[in-house]
Design brief:
alpha/beta, TIM Barrel
Length: 383
């Protein structure tokens, strides 16, 4: 593998901070500890125990930029010095009323304003469930008839989406629309495709996210590519996926075939096939590769060389989460590839659902987490 630890800048971390990070990864590598920690966290919050301060000093500090955009600027500057961009992600999940949706909508507009004044923020990102009820999206997904109130909700959602896209177009700041659970994803895809048709006329402003841990998404990419030709410019973010445990539980509950690949090998295979297909069609598709997989990243680098695509070509970006796969991010930054870290932010308590989901995802990919442990140990020895 080409992604050596020598490219990672650990100089800003003290030995104590490195040990704290090491302990955190040990915890994340153990499914049982993650499971029981999740239960204990819920109990502590219910009993109103003062644990938010501890969370902020540990997992929150490692995974998040801060509680707001202002606090996150320190991380944006720090990453920028290493030629790594930032994608600010207001990671408040589980919202369910219009007051909260309006707050998130305004926060997305703040992100766009910040990006327009900061060259280190190449994209903005959001989840549609941040500005719309999950149940509404479920009904849209199932093609069920909406009540009058739900029709008004949908109208408000479209207004918000169009307002966000108009601002993004004005600023020329692309938007990444995140993928979510399979039982609302078709609705999200349809809404996103409508936005691409309207706003991806001259430039790629809207990117849809495709989860390749689903066995049906390789065909979706090819179908969408065919649909986009001569109609709009296509923007895609390719990821593996972040709802594995929830998807499998959902399929069991409904006694239906799970949409997630049976094996990691098949997931990796589809991700790499999709990467090859998209890079081959780079004249039609702008890409963001959201991956912590070293082999997949190497494959894309080799594809870029094969198709004579410059490292700095703005049609190809790589992205990783803050606190994960620094060896990949720093290597790409060192060699002038377009790379960005997802930097989540938001009030500690409201970001907890994101942090829990991230912990569950890490415990499911022990190989990746174990490699992080090895790198931190090496950094401690050198410190």
């Amino acid at each position: 593998m080409i992604f050596k630890t020598k490219y990672i800048d650990y100089t800003s971390k003290s030995k104590l901070e490195l040990y704290q990070t090491l302990i955190l990864f040990y915890i994340l590598s153990n499914k049982n500890i993650v499971f029981f920690s999740k239960i204990l966290l819920k109990i502590a919050l219910k009993l109103k125990l003062p644990i938010l301060g501890l969370i902020k000093k540990t997992v929150f500090t490692h995974c998040c930029g801060g509680e707001n955009i202002k606090e996150s600027k320190k991380k944006i500057i720090e990453l920028g010095k290493c030629n790594i961009k930032t994608i600010l992600d207001y990671s408040v999940e589980g919202l369910n009323n219009n007051v909260q949706f309006q707050h998130t909508y305004l926060e997305i507009l703040k992100n766009l304003k910040e990006a327009s004044n900061n060259k280190n923020i190449p994209f903005c990102v959001f989840k549609i469930t941040g500005i719309a009820r999950f149940k509404l999206l479920e009904k849209l997904n199932r093609k069920l008839k909406l009540s009058k109130e739900e029709q008004e909700e949908l109208l408000l959602l479209r207004r918000r989406l169009n307002s966000i896209c108009i601002q993004a177009s004005t600023n020329n700041t692309p938007i990444l629309i995140d993928a979510e659970e399979s039982w609302i994803q078709n609705a999200i895809d349809e809404l996103t495709e409508e936005l691409m048709e309207n706003y991806n006329v001259e430039n790629v402003i809207i990117y849809n996210t495709v989860q390749l841990y689903r066995w049906d998404k390789l065909a979706y990419i090819k179908k969408l590519h065919s649909k986009s030709k001569h109609k709009f410019k296509l923007g895609l973010k390719l990821v593996r996926g972040a709802y594995m445990e929830k998807e499998r539980a959902y399929a069991i509950k409904l006694n239906q075939k799970c949409l997630i690949h049976d094996t990691k090998e098949n997931c990796d295979k589809d991700y790499n096939i999709a990467s090859k297909y998209c890079v081959k069609n780079i004249n039609d598709i702008s890409l963001c590769f959201g991956t912590h997989n070293e082999q997949s990243t190497e494959i894309v680098i080799d594809l870029m060389k094969k198709h004579n695509i410059f490292n700095t070509d703005e049609r190809i970006f790589f992205s990783q989460l803050l606190g994960m796969s620094d060896n990949i991010s720093f290597y790409l930054g060192q060699y002038n590839y377009n790379v960005a870290k997802y930097v989540p932010y938001g009030p500690v308590k409201k970001v907890l659902p994101y942090l829990i989901r991230r912990a569950e995802e890490n415990s499911s990919i022990t190989g990746q987490t174990n490699r992080e442990i090895i790198r931190i140990k090496e950094a401690i020895k050198k410190n």
